[in-house]
Amino acid sequence: MSLQFEIQPATNPTSEKERAARLVDPGFGRIFTDHMAVVRYNKAKGWHGARVESRANFPLDRPQPSCTTRRRYSKASRPTSATTAA
């Protein structure tokens, strides 16, 4: 199955001159495109609702307690008074 993307062009795209200037030294995480791809998923429909639209902020779900990590030390890896006294 292939997805057909609905295209919603940006209303205020970056000018060619500004794009060229930014691409001289783009760096990671500093320069962004005018558009982003969005595709929805659920078990009933699978991947659906594919579209390309203007770049925008999008919400992320709050992390759940199961997503947090705890650092656990085995008895052998814990500092002892002999190693901490030095």
Task: Provide tags for this entry.
86 residues, alpha+beta, three-stranded mixed sheet, 2 helices, 22% strand
Fold and architecture overview:
This protein is an alpha+beta fold. The protein has a domain at 1-56. The protein has 2 helices and 3 strands, in the order βαββα. The protein has helices at residues 16-23, 81-84; strands spanning 6-7, 35-42, 46-54. The radius of gyration is 24 Å and the shape is elongated. The mean pLDDT is 79.
Précis, in short:
This protein is of the alpha+beta class. It has helices at residues 16-23, 81-84; strands at 6-7, 35-42, 46-54.
| Terminal-residue CA separation | 65 Å
- Taken from the alpha-carbon principal axes, the silhouette is elongated
Structural class: alpha+beta
- Spans of at least 5 consecutive residues whose pLDDT stays below 50 are none
Number of helices: 2
Count of β-strands:
3
Give the averaged pLDDT, no decimals: 79
Taking all Cα atoms into account, the compactness measure Rg is 24 Å
Please summarize the sheet with the most strands: 3 strands, mixed
Give the helix level as a range of percent: 10-25%
H-E order: EHEEH
β-sheet strand percentage: 15-25%
Largest beta sheet: what is the strand line-up? 1-3-2
